[in-house]
Input
Amino acid sequence: MADQQLSAPSRALSGIRHINHDHRRGYVKIGNHLAQHRELSMTAIGLATHIQSLPTGSKVTIKALAERFPEGEVRIAAALRELETHGYLARLKERLPSGHVVTCTVSYNNPPARSTETHRERREPASAPRPDPDSDPDPEPAPAPAPEEVPEAEVPEVEIQARELLARLRLRDPRLVLSERDTVRLAPAAARWLERGLVPGAVVAALTRALPSATIHSPAALLAHRLREQLPPRIPDAWAAYPTVPDRVVHPLRSCEDCDRAFRSPVPGRCTSCAAAAPAA
Output
């Protein structure tokens, strides 16, 4: 009886059981480094699988993917950034002969192998041929003109909102003046706050709370530190149905044209008291 029990085929009492059939056509091959990635979200893993299954030349813009899948543009943009961070995707700018700049998306199905080849090339550089001493060296070509800076062909809506949020910080504190380059650089970090359900007013309050009384020599470094270290956690999707507090717009300070009293308003004019007394006068 013991021999019969040992020779009987063993079955898993719990866990997944696989019933596999070979694919004859219409399949995509992915590695476990993607399917079992520890840091990528399920949305990013599924999006990478879909992109690798597409033929060359297919559109993988945020709008095109949002029309294909039920996830919105915000979640798709976040998943694309995850894939770029871990080397599964690269979005490059290329200039056409007509002068237009287009975005070229490159998909890498095996980033670990690509990083290994890059490391090997760095360790074993190709030996350059020695110049012939009898031949005259060719004159150096003139440097090519630098391409003109063009705006990005596609910027997610949440990053545009994050740039406006960062630009308005100087209205809360004049020391938080950011350059345009710093605003573009910090926008993805601020967009992560907005993607987690915070209204712009809450993000501004968190970034400007308890600022140092001394001079702020580098406002960009201060904001980058707060955006990175104070990032709030994600909330479950079930909580997304709860109503959120509407954002409160903070208008700049104005001086009343009559009494010179300070008041907040989107446009210059009179304060509330002077405006109420004007019809009576």
In short: Residues 180-195 form the longest helix (16 residues). Residues 1-9, 146-150 have pLDDT under 50 and may be disordered. The beta strands are 89-95, 101-107, 253-255, 262-264.
